[in-house]
Amino acid sequence: MSQVTLHDVAMASGVSAQTVSRVINQRPDVSEATRAHVWKTIRRLGYKPNMLARGLVSQRSAVLGIITLPLNDQFRAEIITGLEKEARTLGYACQISYTNSDASDLHELIYSMLGRQVDGIVMLTPRQFADPELSVDIPIVTLAHKLDNQRAINVDVDNVDGAYQAMRYLLALGHRAIGQIVGSRDWTPAADRLEGAKRALAEYHVELSARYMVECREWSFQDGYDAARDLLTASPEITALFCHTDWMAAGAYRALRELKRRVPEDVSVVGYDDLPICQFIDPPLTSVRQPSQGLGQLLAHLVITAIERTAPLRQDMLVPAELVVRGSASAPPVVR
Length: 336
Fold this sequence. Notes:
alpha/beta; 434 Repressor (Amino-terminal Domain); Rossmann fold; 3 domains; six-stranded mixed β-sheet
């Protein structure tokens, strides 16, 4: 039996070969009815697109490389979900590689991906490496990791303003003894969030006290729990906690329960990321929203647009953050 071709699918579907090609490439300019009909025909005939041949003709692989730290937090996982979904819609597949915090490992991964002929790279590595210069001639989109490269598009959430909003909200409620549970300051987002908190404190003429701050190696539940216990044990006068991730805030909730401190009656808590968990813990957590899946879709759109434009597209972009107020913060006891 001869191999089924794209033209066989077109004839059996009653559409043009170009329409079948657009369906296979998941282009948006095809009606849902036609798309469903063509895919039904593809399955019935057992047609298998020759991706290698298509790549030889177009000089593209239609593959994106994604470099990320291990997926140990929901925020990064949701970014990749949104990225992969948008890439698939635009006709691209994704190849994911995991990196440690070593610059040589990052360079090795990038050049390995170039050897596999990816069309573009998305980097989700928030640590700022010592050598940001890379000689790469395909588009690279980064999140929270600025690269000095003519084909780089550097994207970040405005963490300075996001943290400023969170800290200013607590200050406006009347809090002055505010503990902070922060990430490692060699991560760009952690350093930016601390800077935003500092700006809000300065605006209210409140000094940033080292006694009220714990720096954690990871942005995790356990680190939030340990840091909150340490802060409240050493400084029981603290009336609010600004946790630089929601998982840290969830850990702080547990520590506060064990210390018999109520949220928000005794200690207010504000998180960062606005993960789904915020709506389901008690009380619901006030948090700074980062549009995780939307951010992933943006990264995919940017890198694919750069690939199909072919011209250099150096760009730096800040995505706004938004404070979402729920039930975890109120005025401190002395103000009420």
